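Methods — Computational structure assignment.
A single polypeptide chain was analysed. Its primary sequence is given first, followed by the predicted tertiary structure written as structure tokens.
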Amino acid sequence: MALLKLGEQPIQSLNQDTPAAQLALTLFDSTMDTLLASHPWRFATRRIKLKKNTDGNFLIPSECLRVLRCDGEIFGNHIAASGDTMTITATVRVSPENFPGYFASVAATKLAMEFCIPLMGDKNVFSMLAALYETELQSAKFIDSAASNAHSSINKFSLINARF
């Protein structure tokens, strides 16, 4: 999709021997990790139970891109906390086939931005893609947040309960 947005031929595999495929192979994973970690996307949010390791800390799993909530203090890739188990809420890696449509579109535009200068060298196209990306990102964040159950958290707010 990203290559199509640039007017390039699509690739069938990241292992193809073309500049576009080599660029995609190099940039895809890090770009997707960055985009997924940039926002607490509901589709990429998981609760993960952790057990204390032999060092006395909780090791953050490698699939976690961003810890959103935990009952401890994060140091690098581990969490210092009391107890033998804990549950964290984290943004995790999601495979592209599981991206919702709104995210797939913004991901393709982000990749097109990353591919634009190396493949085309056109700063005008890059600027247009950057503007499109910002618009799509805001729309995707809105759609993602609209799927949340914000009403239940309001009902659990102590001042609301005290009022009624």
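Note: The longest helix spans residues 123-146.
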